[in-house]
Design a protein that fits this description.
- Belongs to the OsmC/Ohr family.
- This is Ohr subfamily peroxiredoxin.
- Pfam families: OsmC.
- InterPro entries: KH_dom-like_a/b (IPR015946), OHR (IPR019953), OsmC/Ohr_fam (IPR003718), OsmC/Ohrsf (IPR036102).
- By secondary structure, this protein is an alpha+beta fold.
- It has helices at residues 43-62, 103-116, 118-123; strands at 7-10, 16-19, 25-27, 74-83, 88-97, 129-133.
- The mean pLDDT is 96.
- The chain has two domains: 1-41, N-terminal domain of TfIIb, CATH 2.20.25.10; 43-133, K homology (KH) domain (GMP Synthetase, Chain A, domain 3), CATH 3.30.300.
- The N and C termini lie far apart (36 Å).
- Strands 1-2-3 form a three-stranded antiparallel β-sheet, with no helix packed on it. Strands 4-5-6 form a three-stranded mixed β-sheet, covered by helices on one side.
- It has three helices and six strands, in the order βββαββααβ.
């Protein structure tokens, strides 16, 4: 295994989440939209942060093959959560902007990045994802 990290949470969505190495600890809370006070962070926010960073790295890894400047890329990931037939389910919207780049090249790059990004691979066929080039 190339890398592994561990986090522990006590108190669920109204508790505290900490990384094993102590480098990051966050107060967690239900979003106001789900009946909470919204005073802390929530798993959907953390998922959006992680996925946007990971997807951005996939863009960087593949950009040269597409003749695009990956350093100029801005990746925005929005994570939604809503009730479904079983309990709750996630949705994801990934928007990529590379100013000055040809949109068709960026579209091809985004599709390739979606194939290799570990977050995209982990959620494939489980989470509806919309890819948009802006």
């Amino acid at each position: 295994m190339a890398y592994k990290t561990t986090a522990t949470t006590s108190g669920g969505r109204n508790g505290r989440a900490v990384l094993e190495n102590g480098g990051l600890g966050l107060a967690m809370s239900f979003p106001k939209e789900l009946g909470g006070n919204g005073d802390g962070h929530n798993p959907e926010q953390l998922f959006a942060l992680g996925w946007s960073s990971c997807f951005g790295q996939a863009i960087l890894a593949l950009a040269k093959n597409h003749g695009v400047d990956g350093q100029a890329a801005k990746v925005t990931v929005s994570i939604g959560i809503d009730k479904d037939d079983v309990s709750f389910a996630l949705t994801a919207d990934i928007k990529v902007s590379i100013p000055g780049a040809d949109k068709d090249k960026v579209r091809a790059l985004v599709e390739d990045a979606h194939r290799i990004c570990p977050y995209s691979r982990a959620t494939r066929n489980n989470v509806p994802v919309t890819l948009t080039v802006v």
